[in-house]
């Protein structure tokens, strides 16, 4: 009789099992004839399935095996085997002793002449350990799916090009979509990014570093409203080490940002209050000069040349008043923070011009700036606030004794990690702003708390203790650093380091500027 390869394999296994110990790959082996009567079985088969002690060769399989097991496993497997030569079933089985076994059963038909059924070989692998591993994996997948479905943060998967593969219910809710069908397969650069270039920058960083950490982003909801989020993401690679997916978690921090903006706005108002007296005095002087020039114009109305000169002086005074008011309005603007590529020099110039109009005569301002103009990616209003806060603190420190307020700007190109003003700076291009006074200085015990919220050395009613805390927060959000050095009687020196960028807003490294410029 010519047998098919699979039949030969199973018959060989059966013969080996019935004439010796069961091979490691099979736990149970038996054969039945075409009338489903037992021909032979190994010991393990009988231990698990023999419910009738009198069973022997020739006993119908239905009589020796528990009815439910016969119908759910053997009858089903035997029918499939007759129809397709071989059947494969997996099931939990309770043995006659009460133990449970997970069996991987194979039923193989053997035909005497290639047509008529002669017998059926039954083999079963006791695969309890593999099933436990599979079950543990399934449970782990269920736990992950539960975490994916129930997480309050957005969990997402995208292709590197920005097509959404999967997103959890929190993502649908945050972005205002009713179902995954509205998002999956769509281009996120067009769908939720306010600026498609931001998605490209995110992709570039992911492919370069393999991850992003706490990347602050402004995204768009379905209704057009914007939200501020933190994005943490990593790449997924295939066996060939190719990036095939981005996976990440997005957390909505819009409410937190709103609270921060409210705090910043209140701090602006406090800073403006400190300047009201000086501004009012200077504004009155400007108006007085304007009135004087008008009187002179009227007096010399018979002299056109003299009149023209006086009117030019009047125009300059009016422009000074206009610029002063413009600076105040710009500083107190309530617009949402918006980063842009800006030159740092003009912001410093505005702060210095405002200070010159308000500080006491016993305080001198000295400027030291680099020859070239350098760019940063920042909210100009917030950087203006930082500089005004630092310089105002310096002025307050010298109000009684007078002194020199030094304001410097220089470029630093760090090829290696460096420690400046007690701060460890990673390599890169920076703009360093220094604000130095020769006032009374700060005690060492207070210096470590200088950026703590609500900490102040000023008398009650003179400050909220939030100024430097807000400054620190702004600089940190701009991926910058701020440090301070001081000693009683030796004044205070603040240094702010902000990343330099190109005109396109990308970080730059200038190999030609390995040494600092400016002071």
Strand-helix topology:
Layout: H1 5-18, E1 28-33, E2 38-41, H2 43-49, H3 61-64, H4 67-84, E3 86-94, E4 100-111, E5 117-126, H5 128-150, E6 154-158, E7 164-167, H6 169-175, H7 188-191, H8 196-209, E8 211-220, E9 226-237, E10 243-252, H9 254-299, H10 304-331, E11 340-343, H11 344-356, E12 363-369, E13 375-378, H12 380-397, E14 403-414, E15 418-420, E16 423-425, E17 428-437, H13 444-447, H14 467-477, E18 481-486, E19 492-501
Parallel strand pairs: 12-14
Antiparallel strand pairs: 1-2, 1-5, 3-4, 4-5, 6-7, 6-10, 8-9, 9-10, 11-13, 13-19, 14-17, 15-16, 17-19, 18-19
Helix pairs in contact: 9-10, 9-12, 11-12, 12-14
Describe this structure in a few short sentences:
The protein is of the alpha+beta class and 519 residues long. Helix content is 41%, strand content 27%.
* CATH homologous superfamily designation of the largest domain: Histidine kinase-like ATPase, C-terminal domain
Main sheet record = 7 strands, mixed
The number of helical runs is: 14
CATH architecture of the largest domain, by name, is 2-Layer Sandwich
The first-level CATH class name of the largest domain? Alpha Beta
Oligomeric state of the chains present here: single chain
Q: SS-based structural class?
A: alpha+beta
Q: Which strand-content bin applies to the residues?
A: 25-35%
Task: Provide the residue-averaged pLDDT.
Answer: 78
The CATH topology of the largest domain is given as Heat Shock Protein 90
